[in-house]
Amino acid sequence: MKRIIFSLAAFCIGCLAFSQNKDQNKIMQKTDASSVISKNPKTLFDPTPFAFSHATSHEGEGQYVFISGQSGGEDLKHHLSADFRTQVKWSLKNLETVLAEYGLGVNDVLKITILIVDHDQEKLKIWTEEMHTTWKNHTFPASTLIPVPKLALDDMQIEVDAVAFSKNKMH
Q1: 3-state class of 84 per DSSP?
Q2: What family is this (predicted)?
Q3: 28-54 burial by CB neighbour count: b if 16+ within 10 A, else e?
Q4: Pairing outcome for strands 158-167 and 62-71
């Protein structure tokens, strides 16, 4: 009798383990197809004209990529133009260059932080225009803009850091 109970218990445990494994596969299949999700609650103002989303998230397996602040420095010599728009364009281009190293693009960015020296409404307008140019689908990451009196180098006018998400690729 003990042998029958033991065999029945072992059978039940095996069935339970098998069913748990099947459920785990369903979860993995579900999450593999997910992507970056932007949310702009209807009870808050619409931030898309200002080139950001209230929040972004990612469901699924993958890795986060934390990108250091990218200045508006041009190429390897890191020349800093006196023109704010030029620095904005280069900071976004430099951000895209780092993203490309991971096989990512701007649409994989969940969050950005922008530091602007002597911020004013004209600089905000320029930043917003360039964001709309860079994020062509107008699905923007969560964003924080911080006015600052100075950055690391004397002529730096802008610095942009980011957090992106890279989905695991199936082999």
Answers
A1: helix
A2: Belongs to the RutC family.
A3: eeeeeeeebebebeeeeeeebeebbbb
A4: antiparallel
What residue has token string 């600052």?
Answer: 148
Which residues have C-beta within 8 Å of that of residue 153, sequence separation ≥ 6? 71, 80
Stated pTM of the model: 0.70
Question: Do residues 103 and 109 lie in contact, with contact meaning Cβ atoms separated by under 8 Å?
Answer: no
The whole-angstrom separation of Cα 92 and Cα 47 is: 19
- Of 171, 168, 170, nearest to 35 by C-alpha is 168
How far apart are the C-alpha atoms of 72 and 91, rounded to whole Å?
4
Beta strands 55-58 and 62-71 are: unpaired
Q: What is the pLDDT of residues 94-152, one digit of tens each?
A: 999 999 988 899 999 999 999 999 999 999 999 999 999 999 988 899 999 999 999 99
Contact 69, 108 (CB under 8 A): no
